[in-house]
Write a structure and sequence with these properties.
heterodimer, A: 257 residues, mainly alpha, MetI-like fold, 10 helices, B: 248 residues, alpha/beta, Rossmann fold, four-stranded antiparallel beta sheet, binds adenosine-5'-diphosphate, binds magnesium ion, nucleotide-binding (chain B), transport (chain B), ATP hydrolysis activity (chain B)
Amino acid sequence: MENKRALWRSLLPPVIMLAVIFTVWELIVRFELVYSWLIPSPLGVLKEMAIGWERLLEHWLATMQLTVLGFLGGAVCGILLGMVLHFVPLVRQAMYPVLILSQNIPVIVIAPILTMLLGFGLLPKVLLIILVCFFPICIAMLGGLAQVDQGLRNYMGMIGSSRWQQFVHLELPSSLGSLFSGLKIAASYSVLSAVVAEWLSPKVGLGGYMILSSRGYMPERVFAAVLLIVLTSLLLFWLVSLVERLLVRWRPRKEAR
Amino acid sequence: MLELKGLQKSFRSNGTVREVLRDINLNVMDGEFVSIIGPSGSGKTTLFQLIGGLQQIDAGEIWLDGVNISGQKGHIAYMPQQASLLPWYSVKQNIALALQISHVPKSTALKQAEQWLQQVGLAEYANEYPHKLSGGMSQRVSFLRALLSPQKLMLLDEPFGALDALTRLHMQRWLLSIWEQHRRSVLLVTHSIEEALLLSDRIIVFAANPATVIDEIKVPFARPREGELWSDSTFNELKQRIYEQLDA
Ligand SMILES: Nc1ncnc2c1ncn2[C@@H]1O[C@H](COP(=O)(O)OP(=O)(O)O)[C@@H](O)[C@H]1O
Ligand SMILES: [Mg+2]
């Protein structure tokens, strides 16, 4: 009971704030203070979603598929590379600057190159997402594997555990907290990169739908797509948190303290 | 069974050399409980790390059961000052892991862990994660983990140093009663003179900077021992003797 009331109390202010923003926005459009072909009214967006839900669902599914493929690919690559770099310090030293450099190349530059190399299929798009989200995951994995409690490491050493046993029983479980922070960041990145990838060949997906609607001066559709993209991002973040909670059960629950 | 022959150890940092251990000779017999007592920072933990093979020996040798184990790992069971239970494993799994690393098959290890937890009245904690345990409970599990490990020698590094006085007292009695029923060779490091006198067959006194053995005391009390030792006159004489040596 107490918890529920506390939850409501913490939810109320942002809900009120959002309601105020949407009301003001609706009023601004109603009184024609801005061009309605530039910015749609919130109610207009909702109406558009209700009418065109079938088409939106189709595009959303395409984007979702792309995002999940890319995110999982990036996670696997990032985690594996993180482990390899952790085991081979020389390679880690050599690769670290390269990794950081690679992150400073804007997606907008990489995307067309990938398309030119690999065409308009699914592969270049998935590759783009992998490229974007493997980095935060790899860095988080590396950091997590390195931040082991010294007392525990000393204990494991004293009882004669092998390098591999230390990795499995000590370093890997220690890294999970950090790894999941990286995965959560990468989850939001992957949705945005999927949208950017879809701009390149706007056939299916929310990104393409957005571009085409924008060119056709249909702002309701653009905003409907944006809303779905935001919700998808939140959904993915929540899914990653859920997996974390299922996997990391040994930590004391926050509210228990 | 354990024999340290002329152990030397120095640390080098920023060009200065700090000699920590000088010519340490000591031995532990089969089933004997030996305590090392010495000032903080005198190099007791370093000595354990040499025996455990975590640090390089500068000179000297370590022999266990007639085998030179200098620089080798995995020959000892260990209980550190902080319980050092892995937070992601349950109490039972933590104990089993130590056995597994010492090459006990997993199923045997788990079964043994469960049996012993039952035997010492900790069965209800078998499946709990370590964060649920109090400091004293954690140390009990940590001791059990070392006791069950198949190695013949146990190293205990200030096992009760982080506990409050009362819990400490309980833990000493608890350890004493279990150890007297299941004798193993033990080398214990402690700050507490009373603790050393209560538990040990023999006490080795270290001087600091660098650490050397300055005294070796045979503790004459019969086993099983009781709490009444505190009022014994020999107890207080020995306590006085060690105190003066540490104070000098
Ligand atoms: N890895 C290390 N490098 C440099 N100096 C060390 C290292 N480990 C311990 N020392 C030094 O050796 C001395 C003895 O430390 P330690 O063995 O922990 O003492 P004790 O356990 O008796 O309190 C201390 O002065 C400490 O600073
Ligand atoms: Mg110490």
